[in-house]
Amino acid sequence: MTIDVTMPQMGESVVEGTITKWLVKEGDVVTEDQPLVEISTDKVDTEIPSPGAGRIAKIVAAEGETLPVGAMLAVIEQAGAEAAAKLKVVAPKAAPKPEVAPVQVMPEPVLPPAPSPQPMQAAGGGLREAEPEVGGPRRFSPVVLKIAAEEGIDLSRVPGTGIGGRVSKRDLQRYLDTLRKGGTPSVAAQPQTNGAARPATTAAATAQRAPQLGSVFRAPVYQPVEGDIVEPFTRRRKLIAEHMVYSKTHSPHVGTVAEVDVTNAMRLREKHKTEFARREGFNLTFLPLAAAATVRALKEFPRMNASMVGDSVVTRREINLGIAMDTDEGLLVPVIKAAEGMSVVGIARAIESLRRKVAEKKITADDLAGASFTLSNPGREGNLYGFAIINQPQVGILRMGEVKKRPVVVEVDGADAIAIRTMMYLALSYDHRVVDGVLGNSFLYRAARILEEADFEL
């Protein structure tokens, strides 16, 4: 009897995963719930446990391959009781910590020109090139297609070692390494068109091409200096970088700042913090008060609780508030679902629950999905104010600034006076395709006034 290991559903918004590393090999004997493979999605990185005990009969998916949910990854052959007793279980070895390799500065290679755009067709949840006129199609995973597009590589020239000549991420990396070292990589067989061989593109022809838009700028060549530390991007950091660049190039960001007197809110927190900690088991911070004010303002200005879907704007019924949280590998934005129906205490409990999940690395893809607006709190010290980048496809993000006491002018009995107040800046970034200045300013003003009034039940 065999057991199929498939790509699991790791959240309602996750449709595929990339095989990062196999922790076992064919022939290994595994126990139930033993980690088999590391996978990476656009939300979280995780390990897939074994659904049962037995021997790894076949590994179907290769490292670097991106597969849809439900796709076959491996086959486990269950062993009988007597056979299982004789089998030696192979536990996955802990991967050694990678050492930072010294950077070798090489002259910038002349890469083959990018292939002319080919029509792409959906195939098994991934993408493949349209079939050539003669011969079968060469299939490529989204990871390989992405790297090739970034590096300007003609995939038809890359020899593949996979099934049916499939080009893996490792094949493409080997091809790039050969180019960068100044070598001449072997060329994959070219498809024939109308009986004529496809002409090879020479380096001289590449050099003679007219510069294309976006190809003129070249970053300065890094010269290694003793003591420098070269740290490659993690997958999460790459995803964050891509998201930030996409957001800035697609959403016309507008920023506006409000000065907020949070004296009453801080007094309210100070008054209730001891009883709150005793009752709830965790400390009451200022963040739940700011989150509650944001939710109330979103109720009054529902247009801010919207998302871009193609050329349409969807005003969301539920307020799913994303709370940006820092981790060692970069920001995560877990989501408080249906926050419009929560009290301040309920919001505080939700934030604490998500914070613990992040700290214990138990956050799930569902915890990170579905936000309709985001609140960011980068810290209270050394942070006067700043404009955050919008979390796509949302249309706004509110960023908290430093909380600090300072003298301000207040009105006392109809006369102006100088008093020491606890002040903070709130900065709103909004998408000008959807939100106009009046709406953005009105929402920010209302959120600030709600926070100043501090009419919250604790």
Description:
The chain is of the alpha+beta class and 458 residues long. Helix content is 25%, strand content 23%. The protein is built from nine helices and 19 strands. The chain has helices at 81-86, 142-151, 169-180, 203-208, 235-250, 263-280, 287-300, 344-359, 437-453; strands at residues 2-6, 16-22, 29-30, 35-40, 45-49, 54-59, 66-68, 72-77, 120-123, 126-129, 253-261, 306-309, 312-315, 321-323, 335-336, 373-376, 396-400, 404-412, 415-431. The strands form five sheets. Strands 11, 14, 15, 16, 17, 18 and 19 form a seven-stranded mixed β-sheet that branches. A four-stranded antiparallel β-sheet has the order 1-8-6-3, with no helix packed on it. Strands 5-4-2-7 form a four-stranded antiparallel β-sheet, with no helix packed on it. Strand 12 (306-309) and strand 13 (312-315) form a beta hairpin. Helix 7 (287-300) packs across helix 8 (344-359) and helix 7 crosses helix 9. It is globular and about 85 Å long. The N and C termini lie far apart (58 Å). The model is unreliable at 81-91, 97-135 and 189-211 (pLDDT under 50).
